[in-house]
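This protein record is not my work; I was only asked to verify it. Where you disagree with what is written, explain briefly why. This is what I was given:
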Amino acid sequence: MQMKPANELLPQHNSMPSGADQRLRLRDYLPYRLSVAANAVSQLIARAYKEQFGLTVPQWRLMAVLADEGPLTQQALCGLTIMDKVTVMRAAHGLVHRRLVKRLPNFQDSRSHRLILTVSGKDLYGKIVPLALDYESQLVAGIKASEIARLDQLLRQIEHAATTVAMAGSPR
């Protein structure tokens, strides 16, 4: 099966205006659709994490990254989660306060510290993972495995393109 180019996957308009007459149709604007989809999923999952485990989405993201990567600085967590410094700092503070994460010295830079999951944090992470995987299963139910793989590939391409554009400055 031959895949269509990305521009053929986007909604087509009968008469696309050009130049100053261009109009943005929000419901067809890919960045908006991605944001809406991500927010819908995050809100669904956030409710469960908050009700069952008392965690915010940023706190869960930090825990998940720390479980995958091991001890990290807050700066590294910002990069891996694509969350701003204040959000990471607040999430980390809440996790440290609950003793789910602890601070370790950072021998490469004494001005910062590394965060690591505590035993309690690892236990809580172990309780959340089945719920997270169940939500993922529900979200992709009825979608073919090949389509899920393609979606993953496309999302990675979009993420890479966004990073590339951000590093280059404003769009062309």
Notes: DSSP finds seven helices and three strands in the chain.
